[in-house]
Amino acid sequence: MKTYLAGARLRNLAERARPARRLASRLFTPLALIALLWAIWHGRQTLATLVVDARLDLLAASLSIWLGLHLVSPLFTLRTLRGWGQPLRYRDALCIHVVRLPAKYLPGGIWHSVARAADYRRLAVNHRVIAAYLLIETLTLAGVTLFLGGAGVFATGVVTGAWAIATGLCAVLGVCVLLAAPWVSQTLFITIEPKLSLRQYLINAAVLAVYWGWAGMAFALFLNAFPALRLAASNVEAAVIYVFSWGIGFVTLFAPQGIGVSELVASHLLGERDSVVTLAALLAGFRVVILAADVAAWLLATLPHTCGRPASGVASQPPPRES
């Protein structure tokens, strides 16, 4: 009974906070875009020099890694849903993830999750399990990136003083979030057996840690593609800085996909000799690489004999009765 009441209170608080978050997002997003456009204009001469000398092979390698990461993305979904007794094929999880990528770029930053949830439901996944999954996915993304990025930045000694304290605290916070994620999600939504054990969950979280390790390397390759860019950070340092800055942007609830926030944090941590503003504008270019990889993955998924429509062949199945 106490667990049920705690879950009800948490859901009530989340509902109350939703309008404020939506308003903040609507106000912040255009301001962030304007700031990035100003940064590009402000550093247009430096950016033009960097782009002209860019190494296309390294840009292609960065894009290829991100394209390959789409094959890893469904593994956390697959393992988590199976841990809750919900059968799901890897192919179905992959197709749902990739075919729904365009929704990722709709205003609001939630529509990729919403579209995937609808497809999971058509695949007869229990609706409470879907809700629990979306929550545990969000918490795990925050926990993994804050821990991996924060601990990495702290351990490599890239920063000192207040930044070092901040990254260390974020790493501790990431661990706390990871340990709490399965309890919170299952307390709120999972009322049936089996339940996900902490050991199962941490193995699943390790899959995401591998994902973000490769994502960081894709970012490092992107930076190396600009020979004229004089960075004090090594490839490993650049990788953990990216993971950390992405995590900070992710937990900044009013910034969809961390736009503006991630670039600002990364530009400060990278220790660029030139203008931080110009570097932030260049780092925004990595979003173009990610966009290109997403478009390529989506186009491949729409080819004949690949994915077709998500949940095809099962959409007509009636949803299961809830227990």
TrEMBL record:
It comes from the Bacteria. The chain crosses the membrane at residues 23-41, 61-81, 130-155, 161-181, 201-226, 238-255, 276-301. The keyword Transcription does not apply. Keywords: Membrane, Transmembrane, Transmembrane helix. Coiled coil: none annotated. This is Flippase-like domain-containing protein. It comes from Candidatus Thiodictyon syntrophicum.
